[in-house]
Amino acid sequence: MAPRGLNAIVELEITATPRETLVWAPSTEHAAQLRRELTDSGYLVLDADPWELNQQSIIPEGEHLEFDPARIFNVDIGADANASLQMLVDSGHVLFWHRWHPRPARKIWGVAVSSQRGRRAGTSPVESAVHFGLKVRGSRELGLRMSRETYARINKRSSLQRWYREEDPYLWDAIDDRYEDPDHRIYTDAWCSFLQELALANYDLNMAHFASLDTAEFDAALQAAITSQPGMTEVTDLTKWDGVPGLYVMVLDEYRQAYVGATNASVGVMKRIKQHWTGAKPLDRLIWPDPRTSILSIDSFRALDTTRIFAARTSRSFDGENPLLDLFPPQFMLNRIMGGRDVVKLAGLVGVDQVIRTRVFDAAAPDQQTEAASNLSQA
Fold first, then answer.
1. Beta bridge partners of 311
2. Is the pTM of this model over 0.85?
3. pLDDT tens digits for 77-119?
4. Are 128 and 137 in contact (CB under 8 A)?
5. Which domains are delineated in the chain?
C-alpha cells in the first residue's frame, strides 16, 4: 500500500547545472511514483548522480550525504527538462530551489521555480477521479475535461524541430519576425496571440460541427465498426490491458466522436490511452494542417471526455488500424492522419498531404471564424 499522502501535491526541490536538472522528491516513494508517471507519459527521466554537482562545487563541504539518489531523478536539460518540469507543475506540484542554490534564477528551462519553500496561496485543489480502473488527476491549469478556457494556452517556446538558417536562408529570414531570439526557439508575444486566436477559431468550428451530429447515427456507425472487428470487446478496467498489444477505440459520447489507435506490447493499450489523457498539444501544433480544415487532436481532450473504450488484443495491431479507421464515417472521427506502422515512411514517399485527414466544416461558419482561419493560411 502506498504511504499516506503519496498521491498528494508535494513540494519538489530543484538543483541545476548546464548539463543536468535534478528533481528532489520528499521521499523515495514519492520519487518512484513521479518517475513512473513521467516515464509512462513519455517524458525523459534519468538516474541522478552527484558527479556534476561536485564538478560545479554546488554541494557544500560535509553535506554530501544529503544526496540520496533514491529520492532524486534527472530530467536532463533543454526541451526535455522543460517538458518534464512543466508536467510536474501542471500536475499541481510546486517547484522551489534547493538551498544549495544561494542566488537562483526565477526560471529554469522556461519553467518558474520559487526561491521560497511553501505552497502558493490561493491554489485550488486538483481534480481527481477513478476512471476505467485508473486514478486520473487534472492540474491547476488543466482539468479532467476539455474546455475552451484551457484549450489554447500560450507557451512561447517552439516545439518544432530545430533547424538552422544555412538550410533555407530565404524561409528563415521570412519568418524571423515571429521569434524574439536569434535561434528561432522563442516566439514573440504577438505571434503567440495570433496562434491562439486562430486555434480558438478552429476550436469553435469543431464545436459547431460536433453539435450538428446525430447521436443515433453516431451510435449506429460505432456499433457497425466495432462488431466488424474480431475480438473487439468493451473495456471497463484498463489495468487488465497493461502491456497488452492491440487495437483500441476511444469514444467521446458528448462530442459524438471516436478515435482509433494501435499499440505494441512494449507500450500496451493501458499506457497508450493514459498518454492520450495526459498529453497536451503545444500551441504551435494545435492546428494541422490548416485552421479551416484541422481536426481537434485526441490529446487535447482530457480523461473524463472518454466515456467508452473498446479494444482487441492482436500482435498485428498496426495492420488492422487503417481498415478499422476506414469503417467509421469521417465526420465522427478525431484521427488526424491515416493509420498504420509505416505512415511516416508513406508520407515521405507520397507527401504529407496524402496521409493527413481533414474535416469539411459547414460553409455557413461565423464570419469572424472564417476570417481568422484565412489569416493563418496567408501568414
1. 233, 248
2. no
3. 998 899 999 989 988 899 999 988 877 788 999 899 987 654 4
4. yes
5. 11-123 (3.90.1150), 189-378 (no CATH)
